[in-house]
Amino acid sequence: MLAAVGFGVVAFVPAALASLLYQAVAGDHQNVQVGYQAAAAGGLLWYLATAVSGFVATPIGEELIFRGVLANALGRYGAWVSVLAGATVFALVHGLNPVLPVAFVVGVINAVLPRRTGSVWPGIVVHGVNNALAMSIPVIIEWVSG
After folding, report:
1. What is the spatial distance between Cα 111 and Cα 74, in angstroms, rounded to a whole number?
2. Smaller CB count within 10 Å for the chain: N or C?
């Protein structure tokens, strides 16, 4: 599980780069996370509430659905189909916006992890770390600069 934390931190970099590339190519610079970031910046209590929702509950639910159910169902078509199709569906569910490439990168990583570990829990940790970084970095920057 400690390795999953490291994977979450490492995954954040290519996911962020993929999002920046998407924004440059598509010209889509909307911040669909602004509501979460605003709530997280509303003080310690709101940050903790946002953290429980975004870093814990959402990763558990999404990983159980997309890796526990969808990727397993697609597994009958082979590993490549399971990983890539599952990650594509996961990304598209997040919408056509700058989060799409992030969700795809995290989706690929988290589709491979259960195949290697036999468990969705490492993917839940990777997902939680990614969400924590995506939500916390802007809040920290705002706290430092404001």
Report:
1. 11
2. C
The pTM of the whole model exceeds 0.85: yes
Token couple for 6 = 């490291």
Q: How many CA atoms lie within 13 A of 29 on its CB side?
A: 2
From CA 18, how far away is CA 94, in angstroms rounded? 15
When pLDDT is averaged across residues 4-16 and rounded to a whole number, the result is 90
Give the pLDDT band (50/70/90) at residue 145.
confident
Tell me the one-letter amino acid at 53.
S
The answer to whether the CB of 14 falls within 8 A of the CB of 105 is yes
* Tally of CA atoms within 13 A in the half-sphere of 42 that contains its CB: 14
Sequence ranges of the domains in the chain: 2-145
Considering only CA atoms, which of 117, 109, 132, 112 is closest in space to residue 58? 132
CB 105 within 8 A of CB 15: yes
Q: Which tokens belong to 22?
A: 């998407």
Say how many C-beta atoms besides its own lie within 10 A of residue 28's C-beta.
Answer: 14
Question: How many beta carbons lie within 10 A of that of residue 88, not counting itself?
Answer: 15
